[in-house]
Design a protein that fits this description.
Blueprint lengths: L10 E7 H11 L3 E7 L12 E5 L9 E7 L4 E5 L2 E5 L3 E8 L7 H19 L3 E10 L4 E2 L2 E2 H16 L9 E7 L4 E8 L3 E4 L24 E5 L4 E8 L2 E2 L2 E2 L5 H22 L3 E3 L5 E7 L5 H9 L8 E5 L9 E11 L4
Parallel strand pairs: 2-3, 8-11, 19-20
Antiparallel strand pairs: 1-4, 2-4, 5-6, 6-7, 7-12, 8-12, 9-10, 13-14, 14-15, 15-21, 16-17, 18-21, 19-21
Helix pairs in contact: 2-3, 4-5
Bound molecules: 3-(2-carboxyethyl)benzoic acid.
3-(2-carboxyethyl)benzoic acid binds next to strand 11 and strand 15.
Length: about 350
């Protein structure tokens, strides 16, 4: 994948086979923001460019690939206490990993982590969170009588509501996925320019979910549009088979995948109607990640997404648990958008 000529300062994601990595990194230095491995099949310790992050989710696609985030602008790396950082003039990619101390409830770990990140963003000038990824083990497991995902939502809500009176308008796109083990991990992208949150017309906003889903509703936007003088990105949150606020198609991975695609289509339509000057760039300038709860469902999910008509972008499939036990599949993505030149 090459950067598009119309959008030279694009952020791009590339799925790279381990055997091609050194070649890609050599040609791209110093423009690598992050190299993310899933499942620990590859050793990342020797990379030394951008952030190296291991997420404890095994890949279903073959051959295994690494997720490489890069910018066409030069990248510098730094560390702010326990947050690892890779930044350009315009944006920062960060990673915070915290092992959960035994005896501490998850919301306390999450609140403290989010407060650290919000504080860093405010102080650094990269004040606008655009996209966040949350990974932690046992997402559906019970901790002292409450599901860990619900505890996660409590901690995140507490941090956002402490920092912002009206936080709905600043919420980033997000994903929250259960891993097979390891620390609580937050990956984030923040920018100097604000991100514009977008909601899905087919879905109740997650921050307005009723209490049946947990004591605090999930604090994220369905998507964020990030527009700067040099480029424009659309970040789409983990999207699932939810219409209104209810899970659809219990037990049916094929129908859940189709419903999820309808949700993503509805979001893309909304982008198109609200910002007619923004054009979805070529599919190869986007990137999708599909989280699959049960390995046995992979063939049917792959069959739906493998079809040409849905070949929106390159896809990475990983095994991961979603926040509701009934959800079998979740899809997220990022696209570079072209800005139509003024006539
Ligand atoms: C949903 O739509 C599915 O809590 O950060 C998707 C993306 C979901 C992000 C989060 C949760 C989160 O409610 C679950």
């Amino acid at each position: 994948m090459r950067p598009s000529s119309s959008n030279l300062d694009a952020l791009t994601v590339q799925y790279v086979q381990a055997s091609d990595l050194s070649q890609v990194l050599e040609s791209e230095e110093p423009h690598i923001l992050a190299v993310i491995g899933h499942g620990g099949e590859q050793s990342l310790s020797a990379i030394g460019k951008g952030l190296t992050i291991n997420v404890s989710l095994s890949q279903l696609s073959q051959p295994p690939v690494l997720e490489v985030w890069r910018s066409s602008a030069p990248v510098l790396c730094d560390q702010a206490q326990d947050i690892r950082l890779a930044f350009t003039e315009e944006a920062v990619f960060g990673c915070l990993e915290v092992s959960e101390p035994s005896g501490k409830v998850l919301e306390d770990v999450v609140r403290a982590s989010y407060e650290r990140i919000l504080e860093y963003c405010a102080q650094s000038g990269y004040a606008h969170l655009l996209r966040m990824w949350n990974y932690f083990p046992g997402i559906n497991a019970d901790q002292n009588g409450l599901e860990r995902y619900k505890r996660f939502c409590m901690g995140r809500y507490q941090a956002f509501s402490t920092y912002y009176k009206e936080f709905v308008s600043i919420l980033p796109a997000a994903s929250a996925v259960g891993t097979h083990g390891g620390p609580f991990q937050v990956l984030f992208l923040a920018g100097k320019q604000t991100g514009i949150p977008l909601e899905n017309p087919r879905q109740v906003s997650a921050y307005a979910y009723p209490q049946i889903y947990g004591p605090q509703s999930p604090s994220f936007a369905r998507a964020t549009v990030h527009r700067t003088s040099t480029g424009c990105q659309l970040f789409v949150s983990g999207t699932a088979s939810i219409v209104g606020h209810a899970t659809q198609h219990h037990g049916d991975p094929t129908k859940q995948t189709l419903e999820t695609l309808s949700n993503i289509d509805a979001l893309l339509d909304r982008v198109h109607s609200e910002y007619p000057e923004l054009l979805l760039a070529k599919p190869s300038e986007g990137w999708l990640k599909v989280f699959v709860r049960n390995q046995a469902d992979f063939p049917s999910i792959h069959e739906v997404l493998g079809g040409d008509e849905h070949a929106l972008a390159p896809i990475l499939y990983v095994l991961g648990e979603m926040c509701r036990k009934e959800l079998l599949v979740e899809i997220e993505g990022m696209w570079n958008l072209s800005i139509m030149p003024n006539e």
